[in-house]
Specification:
Length: 280
């Protein structure tokens, strides 16, 4: 890992880590919180909730491989590989066990960062990210199958396309990103065993009208010893690992990450019981 940092136009910087020139921005002060965006987005997607989060934490937003201001490199879009990018960035910035919050694609990256590098993290929030591909309804899988470079013309005029054209180092790579995202979404997966073995206190978050049904997140919570018994007057029946589940009302997969409810439950979990610097 190299440790070169360069300042980008605007508030952000670039860090050369794990073979990629990763763009990140730092906001606020306090215990560090690394925040990971969804597919075809960037750290900018958290603009509506950033003031609330940065009011209590040092928030590091990251543009993942091929997204936002981070140029693509010659490897697939794979949450396992991007997890190593985040672990390397944590080392590069000298962060002492930050909290890690990820939404959708970023939720998968955050999850595998916790799976592969649990010693680097304090708490994990995994939002709108399912652990089995078959949890997604067939009609959504059919839509995902249409994501490829042939869809560039259709995407023009969308916020995702306009963002990419505005900030990407190589705006002409948008079709390449669609190909890679489509290929990634086309692969079957079941991360149930990795979920069961998580060593980091984790909160699962979903919308009540998410891409996968709330029942899927309840099943995932059960793998974390959650929802299996009465919690007890003193919380003695809660999951032993300090895990939690939040189903946010009135939201969808697409607006959850910008909702004040999302910021509220994240802060409640990160700053609630067991939030001391030596906990977890």
């Amino acid at each position: 890992m190299t440790t070169n940092s360069t300042t980008a136009k605007g508030a952000g910087e670039y860090a050369e880590v794990n073979g990629i020139n990763l763009y990140y921005e730092t906001h606020g002060a306090g215990r560090p919180l690394v925040l990971l965006h969804g597919g075809l987005a960037s750290g900018e997607m958290f603009g509506p909730v950033l003031p609330a989060l940065a009011g209590r934490h040092q928030v590091i937003t990251v543009d993942l491989q091929g997204h936002g201001r981070t140029a693509d490199i010659d490897r697939p879009i794979d949450v396992r590989l991007m997890a190593d990018d985040i672990a390397a960035l944590i080392d590069h910035l000298g962060l002492a066990k930050p909290d890690l919050v990820g939404y959708s694609l970023g939720g998968g990256v955050a999850f595998f960062t916790a799976v592969k590098h649990p010693q680097k993290l304090r708490k994990l929030v995994m939002a709108a990210a399912n652990i089995r591909r078959d949890a997604i309804p067939p009609e959504m899988l059919a839509q995902q199958a249409q994501v490829n470079s042939g869809a560039v013309e259709f995407m023009k005029g969308t916020p995702m396309y306009e963002l990419y054209q505005r900030v990407a180092p190589r705006p002409e790579d948008f079709g390449r990103l669609l190909d890679k995202i489509g290929e990634s979404m086309g692969k079957d997966f079941d991360h149930s065993e990795q979920m069961r073995g998580l060593q980091v206190p984790t909160m699962l978050v979903c919308a009540d009208a998410d891409m996968a049904p709330p029942s899927h997140y309840v099943e995932a919570f059960k793998l974390l010893d959650g929802g299996l018994r009465d919690g007890g007057w003193m919380g003695e029946g809660r999951p032993k690992g300090g895990h939690a589940l939040a189903v946010l009302p009135g939201l969808t997969h697409y607006n959850l990450g910008a909702s004040p409810l999302f910021a509220a439950v994240v802060l409640d979990f990160l700053d609630g019981p067991g939030s001391g610097s030596g906990s977890g």
